[in-house]
Design brief:
Two copies of one chain form a homodimer. Chain A has helices at about 45-55, 90-100, 155-160, 210-225, 230-240; strands at about 5-10, 60-65, 70-80, 105-110, 120-130, 145, 165-170, 185-195, 200-205, 255-260. By secondary structure, chain A is an alpha+beta fold. Chain A has two domains: about 5-120, Alpha-Beta Plaits; about 125-260, Alpha-Beta Plaits (2-Layer Sandwich). In chain A, strands 1, 2, 3, 4, 5, 6, 7, 8, 9 and 10 form a ten-stranded mixed beta sheet that branches. In chain A, helix 1 (about 45-55) packs across helix 2 (about 90-100) and helix 3 crosses helix 4. The relative contact order of chain A is 0.19.
Amino acid sequence: MAVQRYKILVAYRGTRYHGWQFQPSGGTWKGPAFPENEGLPTVQGQLRKAISQVVGHAVHVAGSSRTDAGVHAKGQVAHFDTTAVQIPPEGLRRAVNARLPDDIVIRRIDPVDDSFDAIHSTLRKRYQYLVWNDDTRPALIPDLAWHRWQTLDLDAMAEAAGRFVGTHDFASFAQPGHGRSNTVRTVLECSVSRRGPRLVFGVCGRGFLWRMVRIMVGTLVQVGLGNHRPEDIPRMIEARDRRVSGPTAPAHGLYLQWVECRTDVAE
Amino acid sequence: MAVQRYKILVAYRGTRYHGWQFQPSGGTWKGPAFPENEGLPTVQGQLRKAISQVVGHAVHVAGSSRTDAGVHAKGQVAHFDTTAVQIPPEGLRRAVNARLPDDIVIRRIDPVDDSFDAIHSTLRKRYQYLVWNDDTRPALIPDLAWHRWQTLDLDAMAEAAGRFVGTHDFASFAQPGHGRSNTVRTVLECSVSRRGPRLVFGVCGRGFLWRMVRIMVGTLVQVGLGNHRPEDIPRMIEARDRRVSGPTAPAHGLYLQWVECRTDVAE
């Protein structure tokens, strides 16, 4: 029977979900188990249900990033296989979107070679982190930004952000329990910009450790407050100790902005 | 006993509330009653509760605009009186904000002369209406924008918007049951602009009829779709008949942007 693999580009507001997927204690996931999340809705679960209804058989949806509970995505990438090859891709997209809740949407769908894999074909990812830096909290978007009312030194944060760029052992910027033996990662870009009360951190890399971006942002905010200096960042990296870096910024300010995948597969 | 009147500037996301206030069938409200809303939370009720707790006595909070269920505000204006004159205004603001839910916030508080009245001192108001004009629905802000995927003619909508400006009888643009005998209103400005998928309508006036802005926007979208022409707007106004104008745009795209009040009261 013919099988077609599809690559999908997905956006969602993470507020009502317990992350992209359940984290079973077995399987390929090396991090901690979250038994408290079992039975609660996940983004992957909502997609699996909607796609399965449309194609008429159970599908498995594999995502590029296992975003935590409360984390949002503008451009998550995932893939699934279906035998419903007679449905045109755009018709499939519309039918699935009609069955998804209003805070999850498939932005694009593309047929891909079955050597494509949302996890293993990932080349680069970019995350954004939104801080609402104003005396008044963001009443219109309380679940979409982290409110910090204090004055933050933008220049110091920008300088500190640049110190993350490069290939380093990021053990100091990983949540304990991440379960990875190799904590060396490459940060390609780390920046911060302001527009009105919106302070946006951008972090691009080939891959990240568990909660790495949120710990980087929490640390950069400490630099903005004057509690650390930009030149402390290299020392924190060298220490390879989670206790020397800053607090973890909350999940609800984080967005998976885009994922770049290797899709030009040799025939 | 000394009494101080305060003017407050309030922002809120209307999603979880049944509008600014209950609409009792008696009293000064001339519109229809909403018995189904009784007992459900309102923005005014949340403010009343939080302020009363801080000042130590029951207060009445009078708002400039009775926004409908689901409608948001960036700059609602309200006033209340208190005998707790010993609390500095900024301390009052912070204490009340700490007791408010995360989707309501007092942006400013100012002591005013007791001739100030949030309803009767209003000179001008401006509303914004956000349409998400993209093939993909706004998954990150489903409750903060109206999704219209169709191609909309921006020039035609801008021309039609300009036709609303002036002093007219807006009976064709009022929800039946508004209960007003005089339906003449002055629109000072009506415009539309685009930035990416965001289409923002702006309407400024001295006062509006019930759901007038939402019916204007619903009609302008019909112009954008090509179902009406810009020159139909004056004819619709002349007809003084709700049946000739377009559908009412949904509440969740509407924002009360600001209210300008007469605060320079003669001593």
